[in-house]
Write a structure and sequence with these properties.
There is one protein chain. By secondary structure, this protein is of the alpha+beta class. Helices cover 44% and strands 14% of the residues. The strands form 6 sheets. Strands 12, 13, 14, 17, 18, 19, 20, 21, 22 and 23 form a 10-stranded mixed sheet that branches. It has an 8-stranded mixed sheet with strand order 10-29-28-27-11-24-26-25, with helices on both faces. Strand 20 and strand 21 form a beta hairpin. Helix 27 runs antiparallel to helix 30. The N terminus and C terminus are likely disordered. This is Cation-transporting P-type ATPase N-terminal domain-containing protein.
């Protein structure tokens, strides 16, 4: 049904070739000649059309600027410009234009041959990585490689000195096993998500009706070949790209391909050159919502428009998530420090201490260097990170959000820009009755104070007639009648479907209406009349027949001479017309689709019971009708969308709409859902009464960009667009969506993209986080996305953002807690060589700390709650995009080694590893590099200077001092050794394995208490790490009960290692360790809390927390959940 207020787009006169993307690095091994290049028509007919390549001369200026000789993937569609006879002859197909059902089609033999030659009509599945390679990828993360390297070094030491390094047998194995376990956890989670996703994909083979050998047969759509004649009717999906040569009232829904929400008319006549605009083409995957038709298959499989769009996804690299990059950067820092420290102190130890001991000195020095290396590496951190993300992913799954990649959990919390599709994502993709004007009264079909009009009542004057016309003057129908109306699917045009649902919800005996009042005559809607009419056997006081009509308001009004007021038809006056114009303008101004309804009670003196209505004779009335009223429909926002977008914007996340729909429709929806509150440049000019050119760029905050403008935008234009807080892109193609994402990422945005259609899939893949819909989403979009909303609820995105921000905060707390104990492990090892103190902690106890009580406690951070209920969503994104950040990003981009151009192919080639290493190594010795490295930014990264200072310079040093104090107090109290005497004992090897047993026992007690002291102080550090914006006291400290469970389990494990009989042989501890000395560690723990409290107060003054500015005009009133107000229903009886 035509929209009365829709703006018809100008025909886009473009080339007949569709450019789906910027140049793709895809090559074809086989080029098949087009028509005119083959030796025979039949040979040409049996082959898929070519994918051809532009030469350098054919590239436009922008393409040439990018690269020379680039191969661009385009699809040559020209069949819509030729007659059906020519195309049928080209494919050797027999068609009968007069009687399409009598066409011969292809013979079975020819069809079988073409199927063998060209392959089945299916999309090539995306390349699957084998489970082994997935596991290998998990295993070769930088952190795991660091653990494996540490494990191998332990075995190197074992090979050098097997006698003194027996414990390395266990150390090396533990480190390597930890790396494999960490990889296994990550691999298991990825496989589990993939299995869940696979269960959502459509596995049912599609069937279609095809004419072969002059007979209509049903075959799998995969068996279609070029030249087949297919027959499709309402409710069917088009099985391939077809050229329509006969149809009846056929309309298709292209929203999954183009984002266009309005059904598109299809007929054999075509006046458009652009294939996507052509009225005689129907594309694979489109849904037929009205009528039926016959088409000739001109594209199958990957060569269909659907296949080409899906192909863009394979050409895009999703890249690493922000969290993955930051973890890699942290690992590089730790590895650099560990390796450098190990080498430096190996040299110091060898030349200062062990040189005189010959080969045994080298072994001892290597043993010490590896100990330092292992002490620096937080062995339990990879497992902690993976487990925390896994726990968060499970929490999100319980909220109907499926995460395919673990790091995607945090990425959602880090996004700065959310680009969302409209149809099916923000809106229901279901036209819904909104307002009714009848009997000079406006009614609202919604129970909403924001909607103008009186509350809807199905028995109000004029409403029964509106419901009757909605039910009877329609071709839409339910797919079944044995289930409640809310569970049924409507087969038909989107507008008629909306009217049908509305009528069914308010007419008690709706399913019997067509039987009670059978249709005796019909004039379907057409573009010339712009109305649809039906005549029913529905008796009244003056006769048997009732004429019902609906259509474009201005057309319907012309046909009417009376108007229905309070159940009576009275003459239509100028006053009535004025009221009509006012109500029509009000409905249309909201972006609604408006229809007018009319009826005529046919008198029996002109239309007796045996009267035969005839289309050819036009013996039916088309004037002097009775105007019943106006009905407006819209594709309403989904429940919760308005609040979700409002909360996104309050959280500092920019939300923009990227849709294939009309700009006016997109803007109207945007203004209802908090996406657009400000005036556009055009509105500012209109309000000021000046021209658009007179409005400055700083005088407006909202922009609506038409897709036709995108290709001509300069970098300055893009910068201007993304500087605005409210952005809508309309009439966009898949190529445009990809460009938008890339330009946003180039400015430093962490981009999230939501969508459900095939046309969204390239952007979903390229985005930092692609979010697909499960129920309404296409299989291609689900494959491309990193996250899937299982219930299609956009509001779930907000819960995901909160969860993402919370897991980042908790992950940071966990890392801050975990790496603090590195200093009490590293510094004693260094003092062991430099100052010759007895070794306070052995390598095996370091591993027990990292993989024992520390792991139990660090995992408990996963359940920490936010410090305030809404605080996280009031903070800006952790990597905000500002003019300063954009300038810095562009400056840093000039330092990156640019790609080289292959002289033969002209394609960009990534520089070699050695070239990049050489470039980066040289940069280390430049002043610019270090100035930019320590440049102050507003970004918050996972491991920042504040965290490193906490762990290595502040709390880490306090814990080191505390543990050493306990160590030397034990040596003094239990063995009578002062620190100076202990050093002398060490120099004389009186603590070695050959020394007196009492000395060995004394050292074991001291080492055991050093180990337990770290554990005790870390318990206090755990509470100190929990808060960032408040002091570490109060009710919040008890909000996470799992912290106490983790602490209890960790302490039990720690004391078990020390006091369990038999374990001292393995760990070098002592069962006779006195507990009383841990009071010193408790005292240092209390001092840690005091120090942290002072630190918090000082930082509040120096660096106060910045919250997002309040956005004026946000409407946070909950959107309605029910579509219709069902206060009353009409009970009709015979």
């Amino acid at each position: 049904m035509a929209s009365s207020n829709s703006t018809s787009d100008d025909t886009i006169e473009k080339s007949a070739k569709i450019d789906f993307s910027e140049p793709l690095e895809i090559t074809r091994t086989k080029t098949i000649p087009l028509e005119g290049t083959s030796t025979s028509a039949s040979a040409s007919a049996s082959r898929q059309p070519a994918i051809f390549e532009k030469s350098v001369d054919q590239l436009d200026g922008g393409d040439k600027a990018k690269k020379a000789g680039v191969k661009e993937k385009t699809l040559d569609i020209t069949e819509h410009l030729f007659s059906i006879e020519d195309i049928a002859a080209r494919h050797g197909t027999g068609v009968d234009l007069a009687k399409p059902g009598s066409s011969f089609g292809l013979s079975s033999e020819v069809a079988a041959a073409r199927l063998i030659e060209n392959g089945p009509n299916i999309l090539a599945p995306p390349k699957q990585i084998s489970p082994f390679m997935k596991f290998f990828h998990c295993l070769t993360s930088l952190f795991n490689l660091l653990l494996i390297l540490a494990g191998i070094l332990n075995y190197v030491l074992l090979a050098i000195d097997p006698k003194n390094n027996k414990v390395n047998t266990y150390l090396g194995a533990i480190l390597i096993i930890v790396a494999f376990l960490n990889a296994l956890i990550e691999f298991y989670q990825a496989q589990k998500s993939a299995a869940v996703l696979q269960s959502f994909l459509n596995l049912m083979p599609q069937k279609c009706n095809v004419i072969r050998n002059g007979k209509v047969i049903a075959i799998p759509a995969a068996d279609l070949v070029l030249g087949d004649v297919v027959f499709s009717r309402m409710g069917d999906k088009v099985p391939a790209d077809v050229l329509i040569f006969a149809c009846t009232d056929m309309k298709v829904d292209n929203s999954s391909l183009t984002g266009e929400s309005d059904p598109q008319d299809r007929n054999p006549a075509n006046e458009h050159k652009n294939p996507l605009e052509a009225s005689n083409l129907a594309f694979n995957g489109s849904l037929i919502v009205n009528g039926e038709g016959y088409g000739l298959v001109i594209r199958t499989g990957d060569n269909t428009v659907l296949g080409q769009i899906a192909g863009l996804t394979a050409g895009e690299d999703a890249g690493k998530s922000p969290l993955s990059r930051e973890i890699d950067d942290f690992v590089k820092i730790i590895a650099t420090i560990a390796i450098t420290t190990a080498i430096v102190f190996f040299l110091i130890g060898y030349f200062a201490v062990y040189r005189s001991k010959g080969s045994s000195g080298i072994s001892s020095t290597l043993n010490f260097a590896v100990g330092v290396f292992v002490a620096w590496v937080p062995e339990g951190l990879p497992a902690t990170v993976t487990m925390l993300l896994t726990i968060a992913a499970k929490r999100m799954a319980s909220q109907n959000v499926l995460v395919k990649d673990l790091t995607g959990v945090e990425t959602l919390g880090a996004i700065t820009l959310l680009a969302t599709d409209k149809t099916g994502t923000l809106t229901r993709n279901q036209m819904t009755v909104t307002n009714i004007w009848s009997s000079d009264t406006m009614y609202s079909a919604f129970r909403s104070a924001a909607n103008a009009g009186s509350p809807f009542d199905a028995s109000s004057p004029g409403i029964p007639e509106v419901l009757t016309i909605s039910a009877l003057c329609s071709r839409a129908k339910f797919d079944r009648t044995d289930v409640p109306i809310s569970e049924r699917q409507v087969l038909g045009d989107a507008t008629e479907s909306g009217l049908t649902r509305f009528a069914a919800a308010n007419i008690g005996n709706f399913d019997d209406m067509n039987d009670l009042y059978p249709k005796v005559f019909e004039v379907p809607f057409n573009s010339e009349n712009k109305w649809a009419m039906t005549i029913h056997d529905k008796s009244h006081d003056h006769g048997r027949f009732t004429l019902l009509m609906k259509g474009a308001p201005e057309r319907i009004l012309r046909l009417c001479g009376t108007i229905l007021i309070n159940g009576s038809a009275i003459p239509l006056t100028a006053e009535h017309a004025k009221s009509y114009e006012k109500m029509y303008a009000l409905m249309a101004s909201k972006g609604h689709r408006v229809l007018a309804f009319a009826q005529m009670l046919l008198p029996d003196d002109q239309y007796p019971d045996n009267y035969i209505f005839d289309k050819e004779k036009k013996n039916y009335p088309t004037n002097h009708l009775c105007f019943v009223g106006l009905v407006s429909l819209e594709d309403p926002p989904k429940h919760g969308v308005r609040e979700a977008i409002g909360r996104c914007r309050s959280a500092g996340i920019r939300v923009m709409m990227v849709t294939g729909d009309h700009p006016l429709t997109a803007e109207a929806i945007g203004r209802k859902i908090n996406l657009m509150l400000s005036d556009t440049k055009e509105l500012v000019a209109k309000n000021r009464g000046c021209s658009v050119e007179e409005v400055g760029d700083d005088e407006y905050d909202a922009v609506v960009i038409h897709g036709e403008q995108i290709d001509s935008l300069s970098e300055g234009d893009w910068d201007l667009i993304f500087s605005k807080p409210e952005i809508i892109f309309a009439r966009t193609s898949p190529k445009h969506k990809l460009q938008i994402v890339k330009h946003a990422q180039a400015l430093g945005h962490i981009v999230g993209v939501t969508g459900d259609g095939v046309n969204d899939s390239p952007a979903l893949k390229k985005a930092d986080l692609g979010i697909a819909m499960n129920i309404s989403g296409s299989d291609v979009s689900k494959e491309a996305a990193a996250m899937i909303l299982l219930d299609d609820n956009f509001a779930s995105t907000i819960r995901g953002i909160e969860e993402g921000r919370l897991i980042f905060t908790n992950l940071k707390k966990s890392i801050q807690y975990t790496i603090t104990h590195s200093m009490p492990e590293v510094i004693p090892n260094l003092l062991y060589v430099i100052a010759s103190i007895p070794l306070p902690i052995s390598a095996i106890l370091i591993l027990v700390i990292d993989l024992g009580f520390e792991l139990c406690i660090s995992l408990s951070f996963a359940w920490d709650k936010p410090e305030s209920e809404s605080g996280l969503m009031k903070l800006p994104p952790r990597k905000p995009v500002t003019p300063a950040s954009i300038e810095r990003r562009r400056r840093l981009a000039t330092r990156i080694l640019p790609p080289v151009i292959d002289p033969e192919s002209g394609e960009e080639v990534k520089p070699s590893f050695m070239a990049r290493f050489q470039h980066d190594f040289k940069a280390l010795f430049t002043r610019v590099y270090w100035r930019e490295k320590f440049e102050h930014t507003e970004d918050e990264i996972l491991v920042d200077a504040n965290l490193l200072s906490w762990a290595y310079l502040e709390i880490g040093i306090i814990e080191t001092i505390g543990a050493l104090v306990v160590f030397f107090v034990v040596l003094y109290k239990e063995g009578g050794l002062t620190p100076a005497q202990a050093v002398e004992y060490q120099k004389q090897d009186l603590f070695s394995s050959t020394s007196p047993q009492e000395n060995q026992d004394l050292l074991a007690k001291a080492q055991s208490l050093f180990y337990l002291s770290i554990m005790v102080m870390q318990l206090f550090n755990m509470f100190a790490c929990k808060t960032k914006y408040r002091l570490p006291f109060g009710k919040y400290m008890f909000s996470n009960t799992r912290s106490f469970i983790g602490a209890a389990v960790g302490c039990a494990l720690g004391f078990f290692v020390v006091y369990c009989p038999g374990l001292p042989v393995v760990f070098g501890t002592s069962n006779d360790t006195p507990f009383v000395y841990l009071l010193i560690a408790f005292a240092f723990g209390v001092f840690i809390l005091f120090y942290v409290s002072v630190r918090q107060l000082v930082l509040r003054k120096l660096r106060p927390t910045t919250l997002n500015d309040e956005i004026i005009g946000l409407n946070m009133v909950p959107t309605i959940k029910t579509i219709f107000s069902r206060t009353k229903s009409i009970q009709r009886t015979t």
